[in-house]
Design brief:
With about 500 residues, the chain is of the alpha+beta class. The chain is about 45% helix and about 10% strand. The protein folds into two domains: about 190 residues, no CATH class; about 180 residues, no CATH class. One of its GO terms (cellular component) is cytoplasm.
Length: about 500
């Protein structure tokens, strides 16, 4: 044994630290591989849910990151981006309540714990700052900083218009100001420094939104150029073959060219005479209003030729034949992106109702509105269930409420909100029950709007509604931005033990 392998005193050196170091390195490598696998599975599940139209907000952010990540780090390379929804990340945070924001915050933490890519971590850190800011700004959250109520508008006017680079420069100046010995309002400058991180994240989010829209538009432009090139070559081949096959005789004019004769176009068809005529100024004004509405919806164009996944949300055939305008589709997709809570299921129990031919049918094409409804299910612990069931052997679920979201973006008179009414068959009145033992009475809820929409009805359980405005009861009846929302739960019956 050489002297280098001997300790002082003639004892051999221990190899345990070296073995332990190698074991630790092997364990670290194994943990890293496991994290990469979990991350890849999480992203894959997000893509599957997005394609099926049941993505949560965290899934939409993961899909957005795929569009921005040129290396496709953690994503399957064989996934087709054209099949995925193009989502403006700013719109993901819109309309989320505090509970949804808290769930989104936890999802962001999960991705931050798994991501190794620096650019991807920067993305999730930005989303986390925005999420925390939205939670702080939620109703009921009070600002406790001294003078916050008077300083906030001033800070917003100062920071909101600035770019990310300008904000970084300003951050350095503020830090230098606080390190100086000048006589300054320390609270104001410290509050400004804290706000800078939020506004930097907002500026970064604007850059991400611009990149997502720009990437989708560039893809569409390239696809249109390709299609135009193919069509041009096809037309050129037809012209060449026609000239080669010619025998000196004049080629017949195709029927498609005859149809372009201007004479018939100068005569209006009878059905066109009933259409509303607009002068140029009114038409431009209406076009401007429609464009503003689209911009508020955060709509991002998608290619019409994209394939539809077989796992898409099932849409009733009646809806597929009716209102499929772009605005309606955007409203539908946004509502579908909210997903379902644990106690919710999709509700499509549409009933055929005959309301006769509307008086306005000659002027507007009647159509059924689209909808995205949910039914709330739960357990009812009445005396029978308390006797025969427990928390390990649960009773059958019963209907506890509904959430109706009916889309009316194209109402001719948008000042008149759609209404609804309850219809009971066979002369049954409210509170009466004709159902046999063990069954529940049902009724129709009919939604009524003006042109161009027909009535639409659904069969629901006929129980007493809880009109409480408390958050956990969640009653809502509103019409805003083309969406009629009617959310209600049934009154709970409490049984004494």
């Amino acid at each position: 044994m050489d002297s280098g392998a001997m300790r002082r005193g003639g004892q051999p050196r221990s190899s345990i630290p070296a073995k332990r170091s190698a074991a630790d390195a092997q364990e670290d490598a194994w943990v890293a591989d496991e994290d990469r696998f979990v991350l890849k599975q999480a992203k894959k599940k997000a893509i599957i849910r997005a394609r099926a139209g049941r993505a949560d907000p965290i899934d939409l952010l993961a899909v957005t990151l795929r569009a921005l990540d040129a290396t496709k780090n953690g994503y399957d390379s064989d996934d087709d981006d054209q099949e995925l929804p193009a989502v403006d990340p700013e719109a993901v945070f819109e309309g989320l309540d505090d509970i949804q924001l808290e769930e989104l915050d936890k999802g962001i933490d999960t991705y931050l714990a798994l991501e190794q890519s620096r650019s991807n971590r920067d993305f999730w850190n930005t989303m986390k700052v925005i999420c925390k800011d939205r939670r702080r700004a939620a109703p009921g959250k009070l600002q406790t900083a001294r003078g916050m109520s008077s300083v906030t508008p001033e800070i917003d006017r100062l920071l909101a218009p600035k770019t990310h680079e300008q904000l970084e420069t300003l951050e350095k100046q503020v830090k230098a100001k606080l390190r100086s010995n000048d006589d300054i309002d320390v609270d104001y400058w410290e509050n400004l420094l804290k706000s800078l991180s939020i506004y930097k994240a907002k500026a970064r989010l604007r850059q991400v939104s611009k990149s997502v829209v720009g990437a989708r538009l560039e893809t569409l432009r390239q696809q249109q150029e390709q299609e135009a090139l193919v069509l041009r070559n096809q037309v050129r081949e037809k012209l060449n073959s026609a000239s080669l096959a010619g025998t000196g005789e004049q080629l017949p004019v195709p029927e498609s060219h005859v149809a372009l004769d201007p004479e018939p176009l100068l005569r209006l068809n009878p059905e066109d005479k009933a259409l509303i005529s607009l002068d140029e100024d009114d038409f431009k004004q209406k076009l401007l209003q429609d464009r503003r509405r689209i911009l508020k919806l955060g709509y991002i164009p998608t290619r019409h030729g994209a394939k539809t996944s077989s796992t898409d949300i099932a849409v009733p055939s009646e809806q597929k034949r009716d209102d499929m305008s772009r605005v309606t589709s955007a409203l539908y997709d946004r509502e579908a992106a909210r997903g379902f809570n644990d106690n919710e299921e999709a509700f499509n129990a549409e009933e055929d109702v005959s309301s006769g031919r509307p008086k306005w049918a000659d002027t507007y094409r009647p159509r059924k509105p689209r909808y995205f409804n949910r039914v709330q299910m739960g357990y009812e612990w009445n005396k029978y269930n308390q006797t025969h069931y427990d928390h390990e052997n649960l009773p059958p679920k019963v209907v506890q409420g509904y959430k109706f979201n009916i889309f009316y973006p194209d109402l001719v008179d948008s000042t008149k909100a759609p209404t609804f009414r309850i219809e009971r068959e066979n002369g049954r009145k409210r509170g009466e029950s004709f159902a046999p033992a063990g069954a529940e009475d049902t009724c129709l809820i009919r939604f009524i709007a003006g042109p161009p929409y027909e009535d639409i009805a659904f069969r629901i359980v006929d129980k007493e509604w809880d009109y409480s405005a408390k958050r956990e009861r969640g009653f809502r009846s509103s019409f805003d931005k083309g969406i009629l929302q009617l959310h209600f739960q049934f009154k709970k019956i409490y049984y004494r033990k």
